[in-house]
């Protein structure tokens, strides 16, 4: 039946004057004024179809669509808030939910970090002995209340029993050494075995550091379960076990993953975040700031880390919320006080001497060392991980962890510096030698004339203890470098911050002692003449350790600003910002000379996640037509027409292809673009229509147009799917340069983009096409970079 002109004009005014209606409302006009067809075409798409607009696992979100959805929701809430007190309350709750969710995330991250710190300390000491007076005390706490400790042997007290004393009753001698050695290895192996078994059985996603995956998730990729409650629970438990097993790994990276799990779980309590993937990413950005804040006690460093290293989209609102989340998390951790020193970190130090200009030379040398170590580590670790993926070795993760833990324990025990917990080692290397230090690193020959103990002890000649300590540190350095390459990437939670910092701190302390002795014996050299008189305290070896730690961490991760801020928040050394900046920048430049990407980007590429790195530049002169599919040899593009396909046609097309979406065109002849329909939305909408609407059969026409075409009277009822159509898909012409297309994808977070020529549809470009193209241009195998 033909529609009356009145009906048509009436419909046009309706749609012209009410553009702000939510999707699915202004398509419900019936066909003109004719009565017989109005019941026939009653459109049931008034309420949105549940499930439309959600994403499958391992798919990329469409940032533009999510932002539009959020603006629509915001408009709806704002337009209703004047109606009643209840609507007003709802709008207030909606406005506050962002702050609420980051508060909850900060509280839980701080509490979990405190728990992990305390448990890891206790279990690390369990490898060496046990406190008989109170089993839940670690070694240090055990001897706090004892009156029998002496100044030299402050860690010996009758309450603390080593395993040799308990089992064979000997405290000294070769028998007790061997017994302690065996128990140390047994505990280390049992912790490592328990950790890897829990990960393998309950939460395979809990392994690794988690930062590469979080970067990918924040760029808009979906990995279901990666931030779930099982992953959170298992990661928290196994992180304690992995750190206690003495493996060369840290708990700092995984704490970011733990915090992001908290953020993800709490975001499900608030519909504003649970239904919108782009909004959820804002909470995760704030959560990663809270994670670094509790890992290092560096609140501002955490915010900068989130901004510089992990976040993809970082509006100002997220900056404030990240700051607040980091503050809450640090506050909770400080009130738990896990280390008993009223600090948020174990290795808090304060230096009192200024640094001198000539010291920039050794600082820059440390930066060069950090850059070289970073480049070596990334190459070696990626080569080993690639080997693990491609050989049989990767099929036995439990065996691998046990072998690595056994080798680590056997080599680590004889050397006091590797036997220590890595955080304790860094603390010892950072600490300046004061009058109260009993470590062998501080075994200097004292000048007898200086009887009064002053705060600044002058530079002194090194004693035998210092030289033996330097030998042990050199061995520890080689051991740490080799073991960290093989440890990062095994199937237990493993962070990279602490081992990298330990390597840098060892190198820095060795350089520091060398410079100090040079200045002592050659104080008349023109370098030292200005600054180092006899009896002056001019070189602080602990400062060199701190600079070296920052340089090595910078070489591996390629962070700059956030790293300097984290280190000076860690150490409270505001006046040492210049040496830190010099070393970190040098290490970044040296590392970049060997390869532009940091360890996290390298792991993202190794796993083939679809991540467009904003730091990479696209330098080639190709056009959109060179990248789009279909290619000349491919079958033609799979498309839908706006009103002459049946339900069966669409279902066949969906079953025969694996594409994530289909362009909708006016007709096969004209090829003019109408919009874009996602595969998932199509299947959900057809299933829902078959259940809810009567008369929808396989031969029903599917209509994407505004007006249903006139059909014969006996034909089955048509299915209107205009509400699931994206009416404004992103299009570029075939002559658009690829560098502009890549920029559009990066800055707007697109999933796909359609290519047209004079308004006619030619093909599509997806994020994966761009990644494949970039790999081809870099002469890599494009098949190797895709996530499987």
Describe this entry's structure for a reader.
Residues 1-46 and 450-455 have low confidence and may be disordered. By secondary structure, the chain is mainly alpha-helical. 55% of the residues lie in helices and 5% in strands. It has a three-stranded mixed beta sheet. The chain starts with a helix and ends in an 11-residue tail after the last helix. The protein has 30 helices and eleven strands. Strand 10 (752-757) and strand 11 form a beta hairpin.
Which tags fit this structure?
single chain; 788 residues; mainly alpha; 3-stranded mixed beta sheet; 30 helices; 11 strands; elongated; membrane; chloride
How would you concisely characterize the structure shown here?
Keywords: Antiport, ATP-binding, CBS domain, Cell membrane, Chloride, Endosome, Glycoprotein, Ion transport, Lysosome, Membrane, Nucleotide-binding, Repeat, Transmembrane, Transmembrane helix, Transport. The chain has 788 residues and is mostly helical. It contains 30 helices and 11 strands.
Present the secondary structure layout:
Blueprint lengths: L4 H13 L17 H6 L22 H18 L4 H42 L2 E3 L7 H6 L15 E3 H5 L6 H29 L8 H8 L10 H16 L7 H16 L3 H4 L2 H20 L2 H12 L5 H21 L23 H31 L6 H16 L3 H4 L2 H9 L33 H24 L9 H25 L4 H4 L11 H17 L3 H11 L5 H18 L4 H9 L16 H4 L12 E2 L3 E2 H10 L4 E5 L7 E6 H14 L8 E3 L15 E2 L10 E3 L4 H11 L3 E6 L2 E7 H11 L11
Parallel strand pairs: 3-5, 7-8, 9-10
Antiparallel strand pairs: 1-2, 4-7, 5-6, 10-11
Helix pairs in contact: 4-9, 4-10, 4-12, 4-14, 7-9, 7-16, 8-25, 9-10, 10-12, 12-13, 12-14, 13-14, 13-23, 15-19, 15-20, 15-22, 15-24, 15-25, 16-19, 18-20, 19-20, 20-22, 22-23, 22-24, 23-24
Family: Belongs to the chloride channel (TC 2.A.49) family. ClC-3/CLCN3 subfamily.
Membrane topology: Multi-pass membrane protein
GO cellular component, one term: late endosome membrane
């Amino acid at each position: 039946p033909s529609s009356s002109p009145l009906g048509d004009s009436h419909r046009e005014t309706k749609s012209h004057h009410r553009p702000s209606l939510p999707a699915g409302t202004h398509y419900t006009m019936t066909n003109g004024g004719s009565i017989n067809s109005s019941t026939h075409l009653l459109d049931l798409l008034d309420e949105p179809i549940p499930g439309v607009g959600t994403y499958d696992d391992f798919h990329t979100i469409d940032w533009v669509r999510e932002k539009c959805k959020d603006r629509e929701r915001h408009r709806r809430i704002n337009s209703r808030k004047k109606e009643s007190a209840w609507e007003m309350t709802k709008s207030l709750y909606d406005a506050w939910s962002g702050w609420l969710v980051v508060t909850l995330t900060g509280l839980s991250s701080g509490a979990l970090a405190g728990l992990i710190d305390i448990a890891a300390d206790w279990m690390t000491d369990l490898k060496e002995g046990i406190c008989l007076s109170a089993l839940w005390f670690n070694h240090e706490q055990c001897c706090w209340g004892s009156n029998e400790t002496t100044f030299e042997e402050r860690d010996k007290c009758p309450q603390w029993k080593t395993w040799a004393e308990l089992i064979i009753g000997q405290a000294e001698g070769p028998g007790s050494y061997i017994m302690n050695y065996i128990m140390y290895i047994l505990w280390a192996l049992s912790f490592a075995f328990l950790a890897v078994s829990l990960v393998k059985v309950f939460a395979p996603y809990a392994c690794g550091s988690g930062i590469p995956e979080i970067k990918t998730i924040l760029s808009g990729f979906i990995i279901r379960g990666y931030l779930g409650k099982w992953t959170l629970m298992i990661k928290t438990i196994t992180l304690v076990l992995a750190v206690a097993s003495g493996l060369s790994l840290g708990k700092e990276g995984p704490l970011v993953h733990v915090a992001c799990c908290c953020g993800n779980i709490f975001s499900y309590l608030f519909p504003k975040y649970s239904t919108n993937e782009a909004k959820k990413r804002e909470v995760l950005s704030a959560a990663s700031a809270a994670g670094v804040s509790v890992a290092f006690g560096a609140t501002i460093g955490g915010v900068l880390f989130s901004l510089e290293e992990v976040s993809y989209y970082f509006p100002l609102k997220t900056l404030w919320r990240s700051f607040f989340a980091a503050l809450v998390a640090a506050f909770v951790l400080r009130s738990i006080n896990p280390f008993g020193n009223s600090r948020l970190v174990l290795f808090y130090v304060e230096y009192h001497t200024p640094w001198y200009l000539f010291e920039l030379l050794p600082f820059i040398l440390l930066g060069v060392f950090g850059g070289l170590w970073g480049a070596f580590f990334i190459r070696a670790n990626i080569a080993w991980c690639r080997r693990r993926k491609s050989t049989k070795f990767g099929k036995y993760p439990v065996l691998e962890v046990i072998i690595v833990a056994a080798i680590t324990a056997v080599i680590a025990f004889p050397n006091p510096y590797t036997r220590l917990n890595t955080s304790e080692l860094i603390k010892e290397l950072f600490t300046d030698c004061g009058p109260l230090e009993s470590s062998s690193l501080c075994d200097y020959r004292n000048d007898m004339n200086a009887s009064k103990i002053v705060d600044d002890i002058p530079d002194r000649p090194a004693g035998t203890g210092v030289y033996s300590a330097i030998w042990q540190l050199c061995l520890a350095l080689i051991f740490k470098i080799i073991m960290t390459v093989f440890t990062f990437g095994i199937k237990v939670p493993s962070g990279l911050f602490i081992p990298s910092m330990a390597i840098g701190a060892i190198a820095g302390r060795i350089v520091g002692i060398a410079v100090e002795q040079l200045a002592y014996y050659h104080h008349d050299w023109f370098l030292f003449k200005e600054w180092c008189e006899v009896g002056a305290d001019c070189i602080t070896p602990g400062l060199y350790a701190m600079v070296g730690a920052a340089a090595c961490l910078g070489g591996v991760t390629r962070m700059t600003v956030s790293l300097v801020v984290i280190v000076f928040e860690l150490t409270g050394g505001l006046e040492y910002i210049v040496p830190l900046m010099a070393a970190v920048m040098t290490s970044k430049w040296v590392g970049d000379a060997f390869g532009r990407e940091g360890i996290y980007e390298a792991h993202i590429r190794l796993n083939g996640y679809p991540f467009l790195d904003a730091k990479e530049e696209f330098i080639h002169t190709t056009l959109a037509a060179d990248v789009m599919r279909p290619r000349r040899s491919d079958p033609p593009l799979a498309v839908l027409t706006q009103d002459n396909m049946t339900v069966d046609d669409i279902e066949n097309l969906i079953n025969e292809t694996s594409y994530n979406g289909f362009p909708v065109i006016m007709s096969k002849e004209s090829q003019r673009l109408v919009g874009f329909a996602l595969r998932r939305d199509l299947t959900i909408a057809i299933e829902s229509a078959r259940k809810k609407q009567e008369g929808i059969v396989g031969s029903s026409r599917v209509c994407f147009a505004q007006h249903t075409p006139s059909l014969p009277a006996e034909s089955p009822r048509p299915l209107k799917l205009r509400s699931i159509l994206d009416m404004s898909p992103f299009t570029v012409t075939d002559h658009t340069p690829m560098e502009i297309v890549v920029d559009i994808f990066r800055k707007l977070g697109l999933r796909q983009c359609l290519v047209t020529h004079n308004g006619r549809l030619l093909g599509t470009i997806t994020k994966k096409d761009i990644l494949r193209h970039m790999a081809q241009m870099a002469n890599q195998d494009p098949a190797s970079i895709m996530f499987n």
